[in-house]
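QA checklist item 7 of 12: single-chain prediction sanity check.
[x] sequence parsed
[x] length recorded as 941
[x] structure emitted
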Amino acid sequence: MSTSTAKELRQFDWLVYVLVTCALCLSEAKDWRRANATCPKLSICQCTVVSKGAVTSCKNVVNSQELDADMALLEGVVHSRLTFDHVQVTELPASWFSNHSAHMLVIKNSPLREIETAAASGIHKLLRVLLENDQLDVVPRDLSAAKRLRWLCIRRNHVKFLKGMLSLPDLLELDLRFNAIETIDEKYLSGMASLQSLRLSVNKIQHLPSILFKDTRKLKHVEIRSNRIQTINALFNDLRRLEVLDLSRNVITDIEVLMASKMPFLKKVNLEDNLINVIPEVSASNAKLERLLLNRNQITEVKPEAFAALEAMSRVEISNNSVSRLHQSVFHPYSRLEHLALSGNEITSVRGTFKNINWVKELSLSLNKIEDITDVFKGLALLRVLSLRNNLVSYIQDDTFSENRGLVDINLSDNRIKWVGRNAFKGLVTLNRLILRGNQLLSLNGSVSYLPLAQYLDASFNLIQSLEKGEFFNNGRLTFIQLAANNISDVQGAFTGVTNLVGLVLSGNQVELLRRTDFAERLDARLTITIDDNPLMCDCRLAWLRGRNSKVHTRGYPKCDSPPRLKGKLLHDLTRRQLILWEERCETGCRCDCHEGSLGERTIAVNCSSAALYRTPRVFPEGTTRLELRDNRIEELDDALVNGAPHLEVLSLKNNLLTRLNVSNIPEKVRSLDLRGNRMKRLPYALILDAGDIVCSKNSNSRVSLKAFLSLGQKELCPSAVPAVIAYLIPALASLVVGLTLSAAYLRYKRELKVWLYARGVCRSLQCIKEDELDEEKLFDVFLSFSSRDADWVHAQLLPSVEALGFSVCTYERNFKGGFLLQDIIRDAVTCSRRTLLLLTGNFVESEWCRWEFRLAYQRAMEDHINRLVIVLVDDVAPESLDEDLRAYVQATNYVRWGEPNFWDKLLYSLPKRNAKRKLIVNRPQEYPMTHVNDGTQEQK
């Protein structure tokens, strides 16, 4: 039969199948609509109604006779599914199904051993039967009475033999998995002409009759895995509709006849876990084969043109065998193969093997003995995934993957790679994952730079000793780097080009330092670093890891190895201050702090200021670059600095007793020297390296203007124009005359001067006018501000005692007449009083006028620069009940609490420091008249 004829036949069959199926569905749909789908009230079973009829389930029934009544009530009910679960019945009685309709019958977890013929025939419209985990030892022949049965599943029973012939002409699927089937009669399937799917997996079948499938030409899916089949011969020959064949987990040794059989629509063959030795040539009759699985066999040879006739083949798996070589002609010249798995073989070379598979996307060559991969992958432009783990590859040359620019995943782990070319991965702009784990690399050699889409890199368990600066340059999307178990001692800014790094594993190395400058200046995500099992130098260069706002944190339990005082301590337990403090070789009385230099080196700043030193320290920490010796008693500088701090750059000797300085005692690298406040009479010019270049600036003195400083003598620099006595006498006399004149003017115009200065804000900052002078004309010592609701308490408790101390007190009811605006009264009271005594109670807080009094008094105090406001806290007032200004003032100043110890002493201290009697507030221009207040004498009268 020609290919075109076969194609037309297949299309016609499909069309007929679709039309018949639609007709049956329409017919059944009409039947369901006419059916009785109501559920009667049952005593044991449970019934619900769905769109296609009733669903009834009878569970956990010990005595099957108990179901008789329920089954009788279900007569005439059309079921979508009828289930018996854990029902103790050995034979399915016909009496239960005298007039029942069910689309599907399920009997599971029961001791069922037999089904009566009348029971099978009594269930109308039965299409599907599931008998699972019962006690059947044969397939019930009485099921043949269900003439319309389409799907039969007898799983997890004890069926051993398939004898005779089971007549089910409309059956499409037969599932007999998980039984104990040993033999099958050659005509057992003859009565199943419509069968399309056969599942016999997980049984004990050793032999399949050669004509078993003679009358089942519509088979599409055959699954007979996990049996004991040894030979298959021409069993499947001429099954023209067969698409999937699964014979895995058997003991098949030879497949030559199978591969020569005619199965024109075969797409997938699974022969995994057998004992096959040779892969023969696959017949062109099977040209539509797409997937061939041969993993875990004993294959030692693949015929040179084994798959040469299979252009449509897309997946071949021959992993875990003993194949040593694949000829380049093994595949079709225009093969569309996309996935090739050859892992776990004995292959030593693949040179030329992939010549004809230019469409391949996934290539697995792991667990072989391949030594050289140079130029092996040329032409594979579509390759995306490559696995070469556990081989013998020792090097990767430049441009090895130059023609595989679509690679996304490369696994080269567990080889013997000692060297990687700098351009080995050049051009892999789509690479997402690179694994170099478990090799013998001494360095990455800059090979992992310029991988812009790489997200995962694993180079753990190598011999890498160092990382280059910018090792991961232009790897902006790299999120995880594994470098555990190497010999890395310094990372040298290797991660500066990685801004999206999320995880970095450096455990099990020799890393002493991890500087902030080793990472990108801007990190877009929170970075977690694992640095366990490293000899960490816990100094200031690790302090950045302990910062509160750091986007980098450590994971695990990293321990310090040095300095000695921190050895064995967990990095997590140390504070930033502990890491900065440096105690080694730090002299007593001095403070030594560690700082990170611009190049990542450790520098020490020693501060011995105000330590009463008579000489410079004798010992210095290694790397000391800054020394503070100001405010000491050092008279002479010896060679201690040159010998102990040769790298010193900044030296401060301010405010000591130095009279001279020997330049040879200053370290050569000192670039900043502070000698102010000493007793030196001459400046040692040897300290000024560019003294010969100093030129005097342009000025009116022609003797020195624009002349070299070293060319000038005493005559030019210090001309003697006036005798020394006159030079001192004239300034002294002039100062005396000016002083006497100013003193006389001050005594004459003292008050006017102070008023003038105060008006311009000068005396207020200099406090040249005392408070008593400003308050000299004020009428009252104290203005008592309180809520009218607290008047009784004030007059009984506070007012008498304040007046008893000799202070004049201003209150509303005593010192003001009625008829005036209240805001004017408050303003006058505050203005005419030296202090405003504010009684802070709950009533005060609720009063708007009281709060206005506070703001006025506070404003007056700010204008006078004198704290005129005294607060007495009587009640505990919640802060949120106070307005913003009052709350801020209470929090910022001290107040007096009523009833606290020494209350009156504290109040007396806060009030004006003078005695005054109660006075009268006189009328002011353009103001309402004030209330007259009688003093003590008038009251007595």
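[x] summary fact logged: The chain has a mean pLDDT of 85.
[ ] second reviewer sign-off
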